[in-house]
Design brief:
The complex is a heterodimer of chains A (67) and B (402).
Chain A lengths: L3 H16 L5 H8 L3 H13 L3 E6 L1 E6 L3
Antiparallel strand pairs in A: 1-2
Chain B lengths: L6 H4 L9 H9 L3 H16 L4 E3 L12 E2 L1 E3 L13 E4 L9 H14 L3 E4 L6 E4 L3 H13 L15 E2 L13 H11 L1 H5 L9 E4 L8 H4 L2 E7 L4 E2 L1 H9 L4 H5 L8 E4 L4 E4 L9 H5 L4 E2 L4 E7 L2 E2 L5 E2 L2 E7 L6 H17 L6 H8 L1 H8 L34
Parallel strand pairs in B: 7-8, 8-9
Antiparallel strand pairs in B: 1-3, 2-4, 4-6, 5-6, 9-14, 10-13, 11-12, 14-17, 15-16
Helix pairs in contact in B: 2-3, 4-5
The chains are: A alpha+beta (67), B alpha+beta (402).
């Protein structure tokens, strides 16, 4: 169960992904000035909630589901 | 007689060996996707280029790994393979199945896929070849119901694999199957959600024969070994000698470190245990006479695999000996530290071995908290810890030192 801070970070991740076509988790962490493991956890949770998906083009990216 | 639609593929059926083309033709009679796959393959042979596009978005809910998108670039000609995705299914350790489980797997793939399978892919996964996007989730649900999970693909932990180890091999120094199973279960998130710079492979071999080919194929290799001395049964050695084995020429003279000696008169094998580098040659030559030692564990190596940004690497030793017993916390903690450093520092598509090559082993060791050891040799028979003085080299007009 994600806590309030987790929910806030998830919302910020979604907000960022809405602005870009695709992103690596590492890049999301840098832009949001958050630690990579926290962003990983947020993305993981968002994937389980079916809000983001993974794109593979030579390496894996995260993107908003259906965008 | 009608003209064949696959004349080039037909050539592959003419040898004495079993042909995958023959099998595909049989399957094609009831699976239109396989019929079109044959047609596209014939076209690829004719054009001398592949017609599969790579990558894209395909997955099942919550997962990013385990499904590989395959789209045809000639889907207008072969509509039944316009989408032909691959599912990677995590194999059981040691690849042991009951016939019931194999039938379940095949029934699932008959229902949701092309019926084509590959047992097993190079990482060991069960490979289910060819399905459409809308069938992925139901196929995954059916696989889950049968007790199977997906393996890794993309920039994640790839499905850990191991040799059959103690299940079928007397030389296994560690329980490869248990370790592989434990690591797979512990790192489910790393396996299913690709969030790293690139792929990371773990392979476990039970002894230095390395039947898993871990040193060449894995980013992190675990090689079972022993810390004490090879055990010698001198009576059995004599039986080999009496049976015609030239122990001196075939065994002792081929010991790469000169650890072995042979008294031909007494027919006795000598060993300097501290010189042995665990190459396994003597044990493989005289399996009834020689056995690994009793104090067993594993050597941990890093950085193997043909890479994109640099060149092909064999793994380097980073831990000469680790005991490796359940719950394997020392090993798992090391893995986490390695991943953290790699994830923090690597460029996109840079494997951990390339990162170490770029930044240096010294920096890597400091970051993950490992002490340097003499066993950390960059290339076999190239010792970075000792450099000869020029006057010691033969041909420089100086006498060679003893």
């Amino acid at each position: 169960m994600a806590d309030a801070a987790g929910e806030e970070l998830k919302a910020r991740v979604l907000e960022y992904l809405a602005k870009v076509d695709k992103a690596k988790s590492h890049d999301i962490a840098q832009v949001l000035k958050e630690k990579k493991p926290l962003v990983d956890a947020a993305v993981r949770e968002l994937a389980r909630e079916d809000k983001v998906e993974f794109l593979y083009i030579g390496t894996s990216y995260v993107k908003l589901k259906g965008k | 007689m009608a003209e064949s639609r696959t004349p080039l593929l037909d050539e592959l059926e003419k040898g004495p060996w079993p042909s995958f083309i023959t099998d595909m033709k049989k399957l094609a009679q009831r699976k239109p996707a396989v019929q079109d796959a044959l047609g596209q393959l014939e076209m690829s042979y004719r054009d001398k280029k592949g017609h599969w596009k790579h990558g894209g978005i395909v997955g099942v809910r919550g997962y990013g790994g385990g499904v590989i998108g395959r789209y045809s670039d000639v889907g207008n000609v072969f509509p039944n393979v316009a989408e032909f995705h691959t599912m990677r299914v995590n194999q059981p350790s040691g690849w042991f199945y009951t016939t019931e489980k194999l039938r379940q797997l095949c029934d699932i793939w008959e229902a949701y896929g092309s019926g084509l399978t590959n047992f097993h892919g190079s990482t060991g996964d069960i490979i289910l070849l060819g399905t459409v996007t809308q069938n992925l989730q139901p196929a995954f649900d059916a696989l889950s119901e049968a007790g199977f999970d997906l393996g890794g693909s993309g920039s994640d932990l790839r499905t850990p694999s191991a040799c059959v180890g103690p299940a079928r091999c007397e030389w296994a120094c560690i329980d490869t199957l248990e370790l592989c199973h434990d690591v797979t279960n512990t790192f489910q998130d790393e396996l299913h959600r690709p969030m790293w710079p690139y792929k990371f492979k773990i392979k476990v071999a039970g002894c230095p024969n390395d039947c898993a080919a871990a040193v060449a194929r894995a980013d992190l290799s675990v090689i079972g070994t022993w810390r004490d001395s090879i055990r010698i049964d001198q009576e059995a050695v004599r039986e080999y000698a009496d049976g015609g084995l030239d122990v001196g020429r075939a065994v002792v003279h081929k010991c790469p470190t000169g650890a072995l000696s042979w008294d031909a008169e007494k027919k006795e094998l000598g060993l300097k245990a501290e010189e042995c580098n665990r190459c396994m040659h003597c044990i493989n030559m005289m399996p009834r006479a020689l056995r690994p030692g009793v104090e067993r564990g594993a050597t941990i190596l890093i950085g193997g695999k043909a890479t994109i940004l640099q060149t092909a690497f064999l793994s380097w030793v980073i831990v000469p000996f680790m005991k490796l017993e359940p719950p394997y916390e020392e090993f798992k903690d090391l893995l986490r530290r390695i991943w953290e450093w790699w994830d923090e520092n690597a460029k996109t598509r840079e494997r951990v071995g390339e990162l170490i090559y770029r930044k240096g082993m010294r920096e890597f060791l400091k970051a993950v908290g490992l002490p340097p050891a003499p066993q950390m040799v960059f290339r076999p028979r190239a010792n970075p810890y000792y450099f000869w003085w020029s006057e010691e080299l033969e041909g420089n007009g100086h006498k060679e030192q003893g």
